Amino acid sequence: MSIYAHIQSSVKMEIVEKLRTKDRRAIAKAITTLEDNYEDSDRLLHTIFKHTGNAHVVGVTGAPGVGKSTLISSLVKEFRSRGKTVGIVAIDPTSPFTGGAVLGDRVRMGEHSGDPGVYIRSMATRGSLGGLSKATSDAVKVLDAAGFDIIIIETVGTGQSEIDVVRAADTIVVVIIPGLGDDIQAIKAGILEIADIFVVNKCDREGVERAVSELEMMLDLKEKRTWRPPILKTNARLNEGTSRLADAISEHYSHINRNGELEKRRRARYSEEIRDVVNRRIGEYMYLASGKEFFDEVLEKVLRKEMDPRSAADLILNEIVKFDLRKSNKKN
Predict the structure, then answer these.
(1) Which residues neighbour 106 within 8 Å (Cβ) at sequence distance 6 or greater?
(2) Strand runs (DSSP E) across 23-155, as ranges?
(3) Going from the N-terminus, what domains does the chain have, and what CATH number goes with each?
(4) How far does CA 12 lie from the centroid of its chain?
(5) Which one, out of 19, 59, 141, 308, has a CA that is 20 to 30 A from the CA of 268?
(6) Could you give the CA distance from residue 60 to residue 58 in angstroms, rounded to a whole number?
(7) Do β-strands 86-92 and 171-176 pair in parallel, antiparallel, or remain unpaired?
């Protein structure tokens, strides 16, 4: 190992050691390293992965304006009163014009910023679908390795693509509010299909009972499962109903842990993650093997209608195979 590589390795180990003590700077540095896809991110992830798998990951999703951030802030208070440490990954939408993100959750959840048992990280979607940043799962791993008991993911709230939150969480909380048609819209979007717990927030509004009834009717029509999602009424602004929500989150985690569902969910999550990484790296390898010039030549043929996209893909794959054969022959 070179002196430089040894220094780099030592720095990474120092970050991991501090990370394990919930050092805020180490957590921030680790997440930034993974989020910005630095060259040493693979080594860092490899080092911390053995320390993951202990946290209860909770996804909170729902349409914009339903009060997710306020609800999470209230929920954090409840978990902290029970002696639980909480990490929060709040996904903010990226501006299509500037590429920047509002990162407003740090402002909305600012009351917890001085609590050593709470860590908040806002992340931009950077154009990724599903309401989740591509680096969200890695950020969750960092907070998990740091030893946080509960990790809450707050999604952007963009509709159908919110279903991607399933990949990252053990328990899904879907939040709606009465009176604005959010419940009907959520049903149309299919978001409610993923819910483990329903929350009707801002329950002081008119129409709350109707919203609850509609959800109950929808559940009655669904196939019976071992876990029937509870429907809870909250007023997060006044910290009403969050104690029962915390209970329901804990109950759901115990339930899926007992019946083996937790292991199934995590198996599916890792399977999807491995596939995503493989696909991404195949794409990177494609440029290495065929070269950008070759790819552009093939693209031009497609644009001129001399070749269809599938034939173009086959041609590029053949070039990759030839590249591998050339490498193999050189070794021999």
Answers:
(1) 90, 113, 120, 122
(2) 56-62, 86-92, 118-124, 150-154
(3) 1-51 (no CATH), 52-259 (3.40.50.300), 271-331 (no CATH)
(4) 24
(5) 19
(6) 6
(7) unpaired
**Type of residue found at 176:** I
Per-residue burial over 217-240, b = 16 or more CB atoms within 10 Å of its CB, e = otherwise: ebbeeeeeeeeebbbbbbbbeebe
Encode pLDDT of 144-203 as tens digits: 999 999 999 998 765 545 666 667 899 999 998 887 655 555 555 566 678 999 999 999
Sheet holding 86-92, edge to edge: 118-124, 86-92, 150-154, 56-62, 171-176, 197-200, 231-233
Helices (DSSP H) in 161-203: which residue ranges?
Answer: 182-189
Indicate the length of the chain as a whole number: 332
Residue type, 58: V
Cα 139–68–174 angle (5° rounding)?
90
Alpha carbons within 13 A on the beta-carbon side of 8: 12
